[in-house]
Amino acid sequence: MGFQETYGREPDGVWHAPGRVNLIGEHTDYNDGFVLPFALRQGVTVAAARRDDGVFELRSLQSRSAAEVTDPTPGSVDGWAAYAAGVVWSLREAGYQVGGASLLIDADLPQGAGLSSSAALECAVAVALCDLYGIEVPRPELARIAQRAENDFVGMPCGIMDQSASLLCTEDHALFLDCRSGLSAQAPLDLTGLTLLVIDTRAEHELVDGGYADRRTACEKAAELLGVPALRDVTDLAEALSRLGDPVLRRRTQHVVTENHRVEATVGLLRAGAVGEVGALLTASHLSLRDQFEVSWPEADVAVEESVRAGARGARMVGGGFGGSVIALVPTARAERVREAVTEAYAGRGWAEPRFLEATPSAGARRLR
Ligand code: GAF
Questions:
Q1: Is there a single domain that holds both residue 158 and residue 245?
Q2: Alpha helix locations (H) across 133-246?
Q3: 100 labelled binding-site residue
Q4: CATH code of 307's domain
Q5: Torsion angle, alpha carbons of 29, 31, 34, 36, to 10
Q6: How many distinct structural domains can be found in the chain?
Q7: How far is the CA of 147 from the centre of ligand 1 (A)?
Q8: CA distances from 153 to 81, 145, 230 (A)
Q9: Which 3 state secondary structure label does DSSP give 286?
Q10: Could you say which residues bind ATP here (predicted)?
Q11: 28 assigned ligand-binding residue
Q12: Are residues 183 and 220 in the same domain?
């Protein structure tokens, strides 16, 4: 991938970390709840070589800018390089003394499409640095280290889902993760006769903006008013709603509590080998994200409606919201019709042409060579 041309030597190794699609369980991770993501084939690849001078040289094939840092601290690095430098900082904060490295980064994930390109970058750098310096970190802990890079170095208060998906997923499975205990299990995702169509709505999202942090704060406020550690702990939803005076907090709570139930129901269906039956849960999740959590956007709503009208079993927005992608579960025989229907609906509204990707549940981060 051009490492020799860039750095004048061969890399010591090449690592890959995937992006993710969350099948269901949105805005539940930072409420100590459940999520069910799977890893994509697409992601971030890092070629890397150790350096003895303590310097980190960061270059990306997708960007002209390069960064050179020795002792990264929060606020000292901007842009895409902050996600990589943040991992160095976070590993060191956790007591893992990584030395310098030359890194060349390549990505085949669209940025801003809500497919977790940032977590893929963090996780690819994390596994590369650990291998280069012979450091063994259990994957759940490495996920927390990568999350901390994003929370405290980049400044985005994300939960643990995306980094966990990138590090812990396995081929042909979705990752059922309890975000409180950190325990996870693999749920089979047998797509025979079905296509998981990712629709990039071309409305780019930017989670460092206020909407995501605002939702998180509202959830914490609701939990505090209800006297529970997190919304995960609400056991009687109707009673909880009757105790919340603020209609916004009621809507946020309703989404989180019902979404956790939808994740558990989806896992039950996957374990029964009934992937085709999860469509209604996906669509219910979307409606809840649209109406209760209010993080959907017009292009996503139209993609969901048109997909279902054209024969999808169900569809929903994925990720934090305010832009990004939709996933539709479609009988493979109808996939072309769904693509056409969404493309036509966008053209009719004068929107940018949507992009499609067929998702293949793939393995988590690994060394390629
Ligand atoms: C983003 C965040 F990074 C995740 O932690 C999660 O909260 C998600 O939005 C919403 O489910 O991807």
A1: no
A2: 139-148, 161-168, 210-226, 237-243
A3: no
A4: 3.30.70.890
A5: -30
A6: 2
A7: 11
A8: 11, 11, 25
A9: helix
A10: 60, 112-118
A11: yes
A12: no
82 C-alpha vs ligand 1 centroid, how far in Å? 18
Same domain flag for 113 and 46: yes
CA of residue 358 to ligand 1 center, whole Å: 21
Give the domain extent around 305.
194-358
**Ligand 1 neighbours by CB, cut-off 6 Å:** 26-27, 29-30, 158-159, 161-162, 207, 319-320
**Which CATH number do you get for residue 114?**
3.30.230.10
Q: Are residues 304 and 240 in the same domain?
A: yes
Same domain membership, residue 225 and residue 172: no
Asked if residue 161 and residue 14 are part of one domain, the reply reads yes
Give tens-digit pLDDT for 246-277. 999 999 999 999 999 999 999 999 999 999 99
| Phi, psi (degrees; rounded to nearest 5) at 284 | -65, -40
Q: Hey, what are 230's tokens?
A: 């997190």
Q: Are residues 179 and 219 in the same domain?
A: no
Look up the pTM and report it. 0.96
Q: What would you measure as the largest C-alpha separation in the chain, in angstroms?
A: 66
Q: Which of 162, 166, 180, 205 to mutate to test the pocket of ligand 1 (most atoms within 8 A of CB)?
A: 162
CA–CA separation, 346 vs 359, rounded Å? 21
> Whose C-alpha lies nearest to ligand 1, atom 5?
159
Residues 307 and 229 in one domain: yes
Residue 25 CA: nearest ligand 1 atom is: 11
Q: Is 113 annotated as a binding residue?
A: yes
**Cα 219 from Cα 229, distance rounded (Å):** 11
